Amino acid sequence: MLPALDALLRATDPAIADLIVAEEVRERDTIRLIASENYASSAVLAAAGSVLTNKYSEGYAGKRYYEGQQEIDKIETLAIDRAKALFGADHANVQPYSGSPANLAVYFAFLKPGDTVMGMALPAGGHLTHGWNVSITGAYFRAVQYGVRKDTQRVDLDEVRDLARKEKPKLLFAGGTAVPRTIDFAAYAEIAREVGAIFVADIAHISGLVAAGVHPSPVPVADVVSTTTHKTLRGPRGGMLMCTAAHAKAIDKAVFPGLQGGPHNHTTAAIAVALHEARTAEFKQYAAQIIANARAMAEELVARGFALVTGGTDNHLILADVTPKGLAGKPAAKALDEAGIVLNYNSVPFDPRKPFDPSGVRIGTPAVTSRGMKEPEMRQIAAWIDLVITNHADAAVKARVAGEVRELCAKFPAPGIIL
Ligand SMILES: *Cc1c(COP(=O)(O)O)cnc(C)c1O
Question: What is d(CA 27, CA 75) in angstroms, rounded to the nearest whole number?
């Protein structure tokens, strides 16, 4: 944090000031491989930490329920215009509080309770909000779930088509949280059109790659595009919905007054900043490098005997089955955390182990790429992952790697971290 801001916070609340600094040190000194995380820039953090948090502005620009919107209307309009320009969308709503509420708003826009939704099952790599049973979307709607093929570990679009023809969903989701391959949005769109479903492309993980043109865009084939703003897009925590002109009214009404109250204007401003950053040449380079880094990491892991879901990656994410190395995903993730390498344990498709103790780990390259790391660093990190998993009970090995990780991190300063 900026010293001046730290001093202000510390004067009021030293306990929280200390904890924030400790987290900043942790983020600085460890290798962040959680595929959904990133480092927002100082510009994004500045907007997110601004007085805009003070303002109520239920409604939309020009149609608010409170006065004093002179600046807020301009900020939200800028964010909307930038989102539309960046993704080529007809319409954008930047008010969803995060990815999950954005998706829930889509249900509210098009479905009645009990109507059928179809999405990828969570254990296959889908998201909770695509109809998984413990989610409100699985409890209040009739959810039909597709998976991946056992042989390829990829989505079987023939299965999706057959299931859609049989179940006639009103909403069809594409996308997920653990999908290491390119998504064929046009194929989903065709299936949705055939069965009369609204097609929602949830690009929460990959929106930065889509914005940079290194992953195919769901615009204009998707009726609705849902995304978070804090993953590869590298903005503040938040959500956005984009859609065709025909659905604009329904989406806006569903977000407000359907689901939410006042928009988080500080977040809206920070989203606008992130969208501005995403149009730069540097951002395009960053997005291309994310993929190059994931490929380099995948190659090195395969060479070291890890079993990668689908055999590799097309995007920012790798799902690795670590059981061939003699350890399950959870103890592997714990051992790596002790060595300064932070990732999450994850189920692999058809995982014979339980969700709380699965076979795999998920590895993402967005955050390390934001620090400027490239292929040689990815190979080094893969070597450390192998070393720590192979020696998971050896405290000296973990301590040594943690020290080497700190040294590497010192050479690659993270955006937004000022210590
Ligand atoms: C992360 C994610 C979400 C939810 O985002 P939150 O901001 O955590 O609510 C929704 N869909 C997909 C595919 C995601 O990866």
Answer: 30
